[in-house]
Amino acid sequence: MFLSVKELELRKIRFDEVIEAGRIDFSGAELEQAGPLAVKGVAEVIPWSNGEIRIQGRYTVEMTAQCDRCLGRARFSLDEGLDLFYRPMSMIARDEEVEIDEGETEIGFYEKDGIELDDILREQVMLALPMQRVCREECQGICPVCGKNRNEGDCGCKKEGTDDRWRALRNLNLTE
Ligand SMILES: [Zn+2]
Ligand SMILES: [Zn+2]
Predict the structure, then answer these.
(1) What backbone phi and psi angles, to 5 degrees, belong to 70?
(2) Which of 122, 116, 125 has the alpha carbon at shortest distance from 53?
(3) How far apart are CA 35 and CA 69, in angstroms?
(4) Which residue has the higher pLDDT, 57 or 174?
(5) pTM score of the predicted model
(6) Ligand 2 centroid – CA 68 distance (Å)
């Protein structure tokens, strides 16, 4: 859905969309959309702002990515609020003195006559995901010796010789 500044200058635009997997391209980010992305909200041009667009709303989606430890699928359920500000790109060129120190608010920029909601969502989804993508906190990862996924059971490989000492230490902690 394209949010046109011209239209927004006349009225607020409410949106309520369900975006099926595949429409937004996440492939470059090694992400997959696992189900429909539902988004609802309102876009407006802030009065007396020279075309600054504000977008407020909320979206939900389930994403999957490769687990950093075991290479299995890691799932992320996102339910995120949106409150975003976009200024026209031309404002930077015209007035380089403009300081961007709004503090708590993040300012983005748009080119020409508006902004595509899909692009905003793509960016927001990527920002909402954790830096480390793991299938679960306790993921055991892959055995460096035999390459087996240790979540599926103990492969029986002996770890380095210090293993028994570590076990003794752990038992000590337990009895304290
Ligand atoms: Zn994992
Ligand atoms: Zn192993």
Answers:
(1) -110, -5
(2) 116
(3) 24
(4) 57
(5) 0.78
(6) 18
